[in-house]
Specification:
Helix content: 25-40%
CATH class: Alpha Beta
CATH architecture: 3-Layer(aba) Sandwich
Oligomer: single chain
Order of helices and strands: HHEHEHEEHEEEEEH
Structural class: alpha+beta
Number of helices: 6
Strand content: 15-25%
CATH superfamily: DNA integrity scanning protein, DisA, N-terminal domain
Distance between the termini: 37 Å
Largest sheet: 9 strands, mixed
Number of domains: 1
CATH topology: YojJ-like (1
Strand order of the largest sheet: 2-4-3-1-5-6-7-9-8
Amino acid sequence: MQNSRSYEILNDVCCPERKINQETLREVLLLALEIAREGREGKKIGTLFVVSDSGEVLKRSRPLILDPLYGHPNHLKHITSPDLRETVKELALLDGAFVVDDDGVVISACRYINAPAEGIRLPLGFGTRHMAAASISKVTDAVGVVVSESSIVRVFDDGELISEIIPEIWMLSKYSHHLTGLVSEKRDHDLTVISKASTSQAASANH
């Protein structure tokens, strides 16, 4: 998957409305898509990235095990590092979330998200990772990125599902998206991105 194409098709997700570093979010989404497509050790896996507002996210989470990233220098933990990306793919086999700061440093792994679920409504069949992503995005300024074991990548902001990214074209015939309201749908080769319309897009549609 070429980054230049992927960057363009992800523009509806990585937009100023997210209020976080757009380049960091793009890199996380690209890594999430790699995990969704490749799996690990011959099987599909799921994982969760919590992006930005890392200080507040750490306050609302705790380590499930001794943090495997603890003590390593930040320049080795940047999301663009090929070695770090391979490490993340290995660690994704373990339970818990990755915490990524706004500058793109993966500062912690294998964290249990402890955020209240009151007021969160998710579609039937969404699991604990989706609830964790939705709840932490509601009580912080972070964005949650979930890789589901069905290979769909979902993005949560302000407690809501705002995008679903389908990494293989053959999956579309079996899939109906879970977004509500006005949505946009973009395709580029095998990749399909379905997103809730931004405030500006929604305003334009109403005129």
